[in-house]
DNA sequence: TAGTGGTCTAGACCACTAT
DNA sequence: TAGTGGTCTAGACCACTAA
């Protein structure tokens, strides 16, 4: 069952050996802790340990992989830095989840100009299955015309509609996602994706521009057509850098701003 | 001269002692490596090691601070993660500098929609000394009316004017900054700040919005008044989280976008 | 009290760079 | 060849949590 997996680590065959035996064509040895990190990531990806759950202790993992605790520690350090995992002193290491206040703000950068961030009121306008447009297919690494789920929604803060957003999700992964499910679900959408569809968003890239509001969007946001809006186009990735969401948002930035840290 | 500084480390007085002697009012002990990190940061800040220079080796620092190499290592690991320092295997650890391609793109997120990033053509429109407006003074942690240097410039990519930017810098720190100096200087502005004024930008926060172009800016960018522009308001910080620059940019995002990574 | 992650040490060996 | 950062180990002790 959960027995020790067959480890293929180059523990007894240090990197130097590669240079001696087959210089130039060395099969890219990597440090032990990187291999451990990859093995742990595999277990996360396969669902052996689910979001929110406790993973085995450092000592146990060290025994399992036949390495020292320090090596496991360095592997987990990097996973924690990448937000795949959360350490808690005295308790253990947990698989990161979107069902936490912490994780929310990593993926919602729109902040009120004054006051504390608030939770959004979410209104689903449309959910349907359709064939992926060429551009979306390209971004999702699918073939043009493959089945995708399309969602359109409006988010309001303090009663004021602020974000109009369209989402495209791979139809195969999110099969069975319905408007009812989205509407009745409380909490962050990424939380639903994670618990209902086993797909956890790890990171995302965004392209931001200023655009003029089209008539339909303007009406939804209660602004004149042509008003300047922030266009945020996001591609989200899960384990293995696999793209699993395209999101195009139009943000009204009259009393909100997109907050970014350059560090 | 460069003798061993007086170390005030709680090496022999572990954190547990605080709980025993004065519980509740413990004077916040910190781990050794954090103290080492703070000491190294002080040396960076004071200019003991200048941008681009080699800092002492891990072994030497370990001897100087009377700790193990591993502890120094962990301190430097964090400094490297914060981009204050760059490690190079076999050579040593160097103080980070803005005179590198690497550092440029951390602070310039506007990318062409297609093609490689390019270097900007920089046109200085105005440089003058004035009294800080209230809002700028607040952001720079100065008193309203204190002297600041004001700069206005236009940046073009491939000959197309794309960014109109206004900067405010504390007059005391940047005394002697003239239009001539800015114009004749080749390379990134932060590089000039670092070498000529000893002030290195460490991190920055940005507030991004969509706004309509005013008449003057529209003319500079060659767009109609009212065209949507990306407004980027930046506050940059140097060592000790001290704000030393306010920058308000208006970006034309017709063929460029602001690129961001959520991770 | 037992188990967890967090800190610190000391030492070994490796890979890379320069001389 | 010497010196640097990079990896790995083994062991000690600490702080925190929960039973």
From TrEMBL, chains A, B:
<keyword id="KW-0238">DNA-binding</keyword>
<dbReference type="InterPro" id="IPR036388">
    <property type="entry name" value="WH-like_DNA-bd_sf"/>
</dbReference>
<dbReference type="InterPro" id="IPR036390">
    <property type="entry name" value="WH_DNA-bd_sf"/>
</dbReference>
<keyword id="KW-0804">Transcription</keyword>
<feature type="domain" description="HTH gntR-type">
    <location>
        <begin position="30"/>
        <end position="98"/>
    </location>
</feature>
<dbReference type="GO" id="GO:0045892">
    <property type="term" value="P:negative regulation of DNA-templated transcription"/>
</dbReference>
<dbReference type="InterPro" id="IPR011663">
    <property type="entry name" value="UTRA"/>
</dbReference>
<dbReference type="InterPro" id="IPR028978">
    <property type="entry name" value="Chorismate_lyase_/UTRA_dom_sf"/>
</dbReference>
<dbReference type="GO" id="GO:0003677">
    <property type="term" value="F:DNA binding"/>
</dbReference>
<dbReference type="InterPro" id="IPR000524">
    <property type="entry name" value="Tscrpt_reg_HTH_GntR"/>
</dbReference>
<keyword id="KW-0805">Transcription regulation</keyword>
<dbReference type="Pfam" id="PF07702">
    <property type="entry name" value="UTRA"/>
</dbReference>
<dbReference type="InterPro" id="IPR050679">
    <property type="entry name" value="Bact_HTH_transcr_reg"/>
</dbReference>
<dbReference type="Pfam" id="PF00392">
    <property type="entry name" value="GntR"/>
</dbReference>
<dbReference type="GO" id="GO:0003700">
    <property type="term" value="F:DNA-binding transcription factor activity"/>
</dbReference>
<protein>
    <submittedName>
        <fullName>GntR family transcriptional regulator</fullName>
    </submittedName>
</protein>
<feature type="region of interest" description="Disordered">
    <location>
        <begin position="1"/>
        <end position="28"/>
    </location>
</feature>
């Amino acid at each position: 069952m959960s027995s020790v997996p067959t480890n293929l680590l180059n523990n007894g065959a240090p990197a130097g050996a590669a240079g001696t035996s087959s210089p130039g064509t060395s099969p890219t040895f990597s440090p032990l802790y990187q291999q451990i990190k990859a093995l742990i990531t595999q277990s996360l990806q396969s669902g052996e340990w689910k979001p929110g759950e406790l993973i085995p202790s450092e000592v146990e993992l060290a025994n399992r992989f036949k390495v020292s605790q320090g090596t496991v520690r360095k592997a987990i350090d990097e996973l924690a830095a990448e937000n795949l995992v959360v350490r808690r002193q005295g308790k253990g290491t947990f698989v990161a989840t979107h069902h936490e206040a912490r994780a929310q703000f990593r993926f919602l950068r729109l902040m009120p100009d004054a006051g504390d961030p608030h939770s959004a009121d979410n209104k689903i306008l449309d959910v349907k299955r359709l064939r992926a447009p060429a551009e979306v297919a390209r971004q999702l690494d699918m073939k043009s015309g493959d089945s995708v789920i399309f969602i359109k929604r409006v988010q309001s803060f303090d009663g004021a509609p602020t974000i109009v957003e369209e989402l495209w999700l791979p139809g195969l992964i999110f099969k069975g996602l319905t408007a009812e499910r989205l509407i009745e679900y409380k909490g962050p959408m990424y939380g639903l994706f994670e618990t209902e569809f086993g797909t956890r968003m790890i990171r995302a890239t965004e392209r931001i521009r200023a655009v003029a509001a089209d008539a339909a969007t303007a009406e939804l946001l209660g602004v004149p057509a042509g008003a300047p809006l922030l266009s945020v186009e996001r591609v989200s990735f899960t384990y293995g850098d696999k793209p699993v969401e395209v999101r195009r948002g139009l943000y009204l930035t009259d009393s909100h701003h997109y907050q970014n840290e350059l560090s």
